[in-house]
Design goal:
SH3 type barrels; 6% helix; five-stranded antiparallel β-sheet; 13 strands; Elongation Factor Tu (Ef-tu), domain 3
Length: 173
């Protein structure tokens, strides 16, 4: 089994549904039903669980996991994160990447100014944003910057092998 740090949270087990071990599923995947494409799930202390059955129920999804037979069993796993290993993610096409791959990458401007490293990536609704932790010797004395992750406008290149993101950005901003 992978280390917990190699695991990715893709959802959360919700409240029990009925008395036969079914649980509600809170999913973080783009397509809610897509959570069932990533099996087995890891819950709790690195315990693997397999989904026996699942179905939509109104606006939510419910699932019956193998060896979860009663409402008490379902209560025991309630609120646990649903995790998978990074190896379970699909391979991406050339030029595509997962947010987790961007974390820790060096960010430099097209003029060669080192802005720092990516601390986090998040979505604002309008576009994705990278939070860049500035270097200790930042000439502009900034602790962090938020840069829009807009390809071809701000982000000029992402070098996954070299772990460098090149941006068209004024270091003073």
């Amino acid at each position: 089994m992978s280390q917990a740090s190699d695991n990715l949270v893709i959802g959360k087990i919700g409240a029990p549904h009925g008395v036969k071990g079914w649980v509600k599923i809170n999913t973080y995947t783009n397509v809610p039903e897509g959570i069932f494409e990533y099996l087995p799930w890891i819950l709790g202390e690195e315990q693997e669980y397999r989904v026996d059955q699942w179905r939509p129920h109104g606006k939510v999804l419910v699932a019956k996991l193998v060896n979860i037979e009663t409402r008490d069993d379902a209560e025991r796993i309630k609120n646990l994160d649903i995790r998978i290993t990074a190896e379970q993610l699909p391979e991406l096409d050339e030029g595509e990447f997962y947010w987790r791959e961007l974390t820790g990458m060096q960010v430099v401007t097209t003029q060669g100014y080192d802005l720092g490293v990516v601390k986090d990536v998040f979505n604002t609704g309008a576009n994705d944003v990278i939070q860049v932790k500035a270097n200790a010797k930042d000439a502009f004395d900034q602790k962090e910057r938020l840069l829009p992750f807009v390809l071809d406008e701000v982000v000029q290149a992402v070098d996954k092998v070299g772990r460098i993101i090149t941006v068209d950005w004024d270091p003073g901003f």
